[in-house]
């Protein structure tokens, strides 16, 4: 008996609630509670049922879904697995991405899921975009060799050492991506170029950090209830990095604990767990004052859109004729812990959100030293606010 086709109409599909709806011939519409949905084709090949996604309901019309279903049903009738065939076709199409700028863009798309904010900040792709693609972007990736790479990066190899190193590392990832696509490339070209470029002469300088004994005076100068003053205060009190501070949201605060999502921390977003920051009474007061400025869920919004920038806090320190920068307060806190307390190393490093120990050791550790860190930051808050601080002794916690 012939199967009934085209059971659905565009209006019926649009107005359907959550559930599964058959259009016939193995084509199904799977709707979600939020109104979205997915087209799915069910076929049987080699005695096994396969479900093949044909696109989202919002992007693929009923007509397009039926046309796609017809194509893949025909493939199935040829005794070919449609899912494997589609993957084969995609690989064949990928092999045509032979220009470096196209391969680089494809590599970037593949890595977005593990980058913070899907790489929207541009930090991953920018070194390639600014320093590699203008010269090599239109070359076939298989023709690029170590001399091309050396000549491209040589002008910045010593003067912008960190940027040049990032550009070379990103290019290495792109070359390996090209090889994975089946393109004939020299995946050792970047390492050969590194050897040709030689050792970098650029001397890395640390971000200027305010000596911890001077921190109370500067903290006292932040007397205005402005976004910039409040942001700097919370930065100093918690010892966190600038990005989590600037992107702090109301829902991240749970009582006297601030939970920083792994997606906005330093490191790979797919490997970085959430980080709990104990909030002292002083920090909670700052957060409470910041709530009057909140917009769009952010406690430290920018005047126009988004959130306060790191440059905004830096400029305030520049106007105060200071050589120090906001990120340096992490060093101020760490130096104070070392010189004015007897805090165990693991607790001190975890206070700054640093990874402590190897992978095996971390796997067996069942604590993030939250309460020990709370004591450290409470003492630090007293120092920062000018209430004095005696040497703090903590019992070393067992991992």
TrEMBL record:
GO terms for molecular function: DNA binding. Gene3D superfamilies: 1.10.150.130, Integrase, DNA-binding domain, Intergrase catalytic core. Keywords: DNA integration, DNA recombination, DNA-binding. Residues 205-377 form the Tyr recombinase domain. Coiled coil: none annotated. SUPFAM superfamilies: DNA breaking-rejoining enzymes. It comes from the Bacteria. GO terms for biological process: DNA integration; DNA recombination. Belongs to the 'phage' integrase family. This is DUF4102 domain-containing protein. It comes from Aliirhizobium smilacinae. The lineage of its organism: Bacteria, Pseudomonadati, Pseudomonadota, Alphaproteobacteria, Hyphomicrobiales.
